Amino acid sequence: MAREVAAGLALARADSELARCPRCAAELSIVSAELLARIGHVEAAREAEAASDLGTTNTYHQRDLWRMGATAAIAVADGDDEVAVNTLELHAEALTRAGLRGELLWARLDLGRIMVRIDRSRAIAEFARAAELAEEIGAASQARLAAQMLRGLGVRAWRRGRAANGEGLASLTGREREVARLVGDGYSNREIAEALLLSPKTVERHLTNVLAKLGLRNRTEVASVIRSGLVRGSPDE
Predict the structure, then answer these.
(1) DSSP for 27-87, written as a single string
(2) Is there a contact between 36 and 78 (Cβ–Cβ < 8 Å)?
(3) For the segment 94-117, what is each residue's pLDDT rounded down to a tens digit?
(4) Would you tell me which CATH number, out of the four given (3.10.180.10, 1.10.10.10, 3.10.490.10, 2.40.50.140), belongs to the domain 166-227?
């Protein structure tokens, strides 16, 4: 795959030179930087990123958005998680403002991949958001990828709106149901931890799983589902 990507970029650069279009060359350099970083050619990616400073800007600051993606990809390839996360978060915010939902989907997936080794709960949240967005825009391949990553983190299923009609509740473990019930009763995470003799971090993990499995966004929505009577305190009820 890396060889094919490099060959494709070489052909694109040749076409750009024939066209004698500085703007095209600059934009190609930015896109090349991200692609080269993703296939492990970090030094070439840095050179391409530096070359992208030439030319003019696009509508919606498209070039700045591409540059953020390239910077994040290079940071990931370098193993610099802090820079990668910070850049991807800014990238996601900018893509949201620009309404570029396809690019936003990939930013969410990239964030999730990094968070797998840093913060499991955050990884689940990012993949769940990616799955929801993929479903909204009809990105079937990315939806399958997000679902696969969620399964790898112990979240067996995801589908938007599952809680609204009772679907997906069978995927909750007994402990997740207990946590959901106490959230519905107005307990804080610390209070739930004390009631169930768990650590606050474990409670946070269970709650994150509940949100992802039921396609909910926050504890207020969990409480609403609890009040509807769809979730009980044990898996057999």
Answers:
(1) HHHHHHHHHHHHTT-HHHHHHHHHHTTSS---GGGHHHHHHHHHHHHHHHHHT-HHHHHHH
(2) no
(3) 888 888 888 899 999 999 999 998
(4) 1.10.10.10
